[in-house]
Amino acid sequence: MKLRFHNAKILTMENENIIDGELHTDGGKISYVGEKTDNSGKFDREIDLNGDLIIPGFKDAHTHSAMTFLRSFADDLPLNDWLYNQVFPHEAKLTEDAIYVFTQLANMEYLTSGITSSFDMYFKLPAYSKANIDMGFRTVICGSINDFGGTVEGIEEEFNTYNSLHPLVSYQLGFHAEYTTKRETLEGLAKLSQKYKAPMYTHNSETKSEVEGCRERYGMTPTQLFNKLGMFEYGGGGFHCVWFDGRDMEIFRDKGLFMVTNPASNLKLASGIAPICEMKRHGMKNFAIGTDGAASNNCLDMFREMFLVTALQKYREDDAAACPAFDVLEMATKGGARAMGLFDCDVLAVGKFADFAVIDLSQPNMRPFHNLAKNLVYAGSKQNVKMTVVNGKILYENGEFTTVDKNEIYERAEKIAREICG
Amino acid sequence: MKLRFHNAKILTMENENIIDGELHTDGGKISYVGEKTDNSGKFDREIDLNGDLIIPGFKDAHTHSAMTFLRSFADDLPLNDWLYNQVFPHEAKLTEDAIYVFTQLANMEYLTSGITSSFDMYFKLPAYSKANIDMGFRTVICGSINDFGGTVEGIEEEFNTYNSLHPLVSYQLGFHAEYTTKRETLEGLAKLSQKYKAPMYTHNSETKSEVEGCRERYGMTPTQLFNKLGMFEYGGGGFHCVWFDGRDMEIFRDKGLFMVTNPASNLKLASGIAPICEMKRHGMKNFAIGTDGAASNNCLDMFREMFLVTALQKYREDDAAACPAFDVLEMATKGGARAMGLFDCDVLAVGKFADFAVIDLSQPNMRPFHNLAKNLVYAGSKQNVKMTVVNGKILYENGEFTTVDKNEIYERAEKIAREICG
Question: Which of A306, A366, A370 would best serve as a mutation to test chain B binding (most B beta carbons within 10 A)?
Fold first, then answer.
């Protein structure tokens, strides 16, 4: 399939410039980005974008997709009550079919927000990966072993299975968190990382009490522990990273680790505001953004996250100049792709995967055109997503999903939600 | 014009219940809300909502609409640099025509977010009111006198003029802020309030330095000063109210004043997080939500504001149970209406004005249906606004504006923005 998107503005994210021109795809890849061509007639479909904006797809660099089943079910509760009395007991009832349906529901929502891939940590991976493959959505699975489920051998098997299953699916080593995973398992994972020369990811320092608990158990922070155990010899990253100290930041800097921030979830669960500007002052350079799951956020919307990233830093730093818009856009696109190991999904250039979104500029929130990148970060909304393309295939266009029957998903989702939650 | 919206879910905001039924309008008013009827055939138009949700329109209880002309022009700057070097010099170039066009641009954006009325503080009121009347949008003008423009006599004249100009326009007494308005003027305004038995509104305690300055000048906070001068004998309210002390909260409680919060603007300009839960503990009961202007926010979106109101309180209180969703929905609808003096725009009931929005539930972020009010506050987006109705007239439907030519507005807005900002 060859597509031509012409009469477009294009923000490639290779730099801050906006090109007036066109983008072509050939199969899953980008075959041309640049000025207007006279190549009409050589494509399966040619789409006149009427001046709308093409950007690299957003990367949701930390999420639990199928948690859409609990959206708005148990909010406004203290964290422990929420987790132990609402989340865990209901998760125990999830079937393969439930995972499939609620993953597709999440993917639909990603598409409405211009998100083209997810870095997902959940379970029942056969159903999860099938839901993505069937829809044509790109996902990176993150290992989620902890003391309640999974083994290091199981993680190794998953690593090999899901890195060779399908071009849209890949797998990164990971585990749930320090506070749910015993030392022996952490040591086994460190060896696995070194065996495969593979990066390692986990929830890290999401809450103050998590860090305090780790200090009591090990006399050091989770980051310092993981580093000491040799988990980061081949890179990786942490999700949340709200309660970092200076030494944690230096480790992340020295090992080139990715800090994946989840601002909406961190506010809504009263976890805190991550010190992103302080991390930058410590020399950290690798940042990405995730939504976390719909049970804690409760929506899967990169526009809301982007605004929160910058606005919360401005608040935290007491400086309206902190964390400028283009930096945030980089985190949400390039940074996310690289955090997930999707090095060919980062920018719009020939040979890169054709994972992108078309932003409707014919909406009042995008006017006037003083600065389109700022309009996106400070004023953008799902309402502006006209089209989302993954691997050269249009999955979402003018409010419709091309690879799933939305009403069927909604009906199945309601039925299963009733069965699980009563 | 008589309209019938049937096959709907209806959240009237009289209570938390959701009705399955229909809503009828007759002219600008609601003539029926309740269960299914067999009244087909008696209307100018009958709309099958296919189960979508009708809610009272959101009220943007503090904004500067025409500041859309500066959207994304001067962000990421320290507050003083932004205000004195970017906002003021460019505002000085605004013509009546510019105010008209950028007000209509803002109103279009309000409509995309289900907002049916604005409480606006700006200038060039003839052009401003005409822009609203021509579009069919409801607005309440707030007086904006300060030492740089306007007189008490001028405010009195505006009060009389704009409270009798047109059914869609009303006017409340107000002034810019303590730090921009000399005592003599404040005293004159207090007398005016008492003469007309009218409430009084102003920017109040937006920044820490504003309150510190007032303490230096008067030995008390702005709220205490205004109260001492007799400005609140007939009610009123304050915009922002970030830096309140206990005594300020007691005054607001005792006088029944409205606290209008602007969380996105307060974060983005690094002003702070308003202590809403603490205010409630002090007995304050009247709250509303505003977007502030697009130069500081940068978008006019009640969904983003609602999420911020609750999420920032959860963060500030270190309690995920703080500020539950339905309370926020009340602030954004009923609370806003009452803050603005629009007592017949607060809930959906017979005899109230037909100001409402239709929420598209056939979007992934609204599924499953565990709790629709929470879905709105925690997961809602402009993408979910299918229709916005003001005074019984559909102004926005399926992405199209019925009373303005959007392309004409965009073209005029771009041209004027270039002329003013270069």
Answer: A370
CATH superfamily, with its number, for domain B58-339: Metal-dependent hydrolases (3.20.20.140)
The CA distances from residue A217 to A187, A208, A362, in Å, are 15, 14, 56
Which residues on B lie below 8 Å from A314 (Cβ)? Answer: 267-270
What ipTM was predicted for this assembly? Answer: 0.97
Q: What is the per-residue pLDDT across B342-379, written as a single tens digit (0 to 9) for each?
A: 999 999 999 999 999 999 999 999 999 999 999 999 99
For residue range A205-256, list pLDDT tens digits in order: 999 999 999 999 999 999 999 999 999 999 999 999 999 999 999 999 999 9
| Residue B105 φ/ψ, nearest 5 degrees | -60, -45
What is the rounded CA–CA span in Å between residue B317 and residue A298?
19
Mean pLDDT calculated for residue range B139-152: 95
Q: What pLDDT score was predicted for residue B86?
A: 87
Q: Return residues 221-240 of B near A (CB < 8 Å).
A: none
- Averaged confidence pLDDT in chain B: 96
Compare CB distances from B82 to A320, A378, A382 and report the shortest one's residue. A320
Smallest CA–CA separation between B108 and chain A, in Å? 6
What predicted TM-score, i.e. pTM, was given to this entire model? 0.98
A300 and B CB contact within 8 Å: yes
Instruction: State whether A383 and B382 contact (CB < 8 Å).
Output: yes
Is B76 within 8 Å of chain A by CB?
yes
Please report, as a single letter, which amino acid is at residue A177.
A
User: Which homologous superfamily does the CATH classification assign to the domain defined by A2-57+345-401?
Assistant: Urease, subunit C, domain 1 (2.30.40.10)
Domain boundaries, chain B: 2-57+345-401, 58-339
Instruction: Name the pLDDT band for A420 (thresholds 50, 70, 90).
Output: very high
- What percent of chain A stands above pLDDT 70? 100
Under an 8 A CB cutoff, do A383 and B379 touch?
A: no
Among A70, A268, A409, beta carbon nearest to B314: A268
**Who's near B157: CB < 8 A, 6+ residues apart?**
none
Distances (CA, A) of A62 to A184, A268, B53, B173, B277: 25, 16, 31, 49, 31
pLDDT of residue B74: 81
Alpha carbon B399 to its chain centroid, in Å, reads 21
**Cβ neighbours of residue B347 closer than 8 Å, sequence gap 6 or more:** B12, B13, B14, B56, B333, B334
A407 vs A420: CA distance, rounded Å: 20
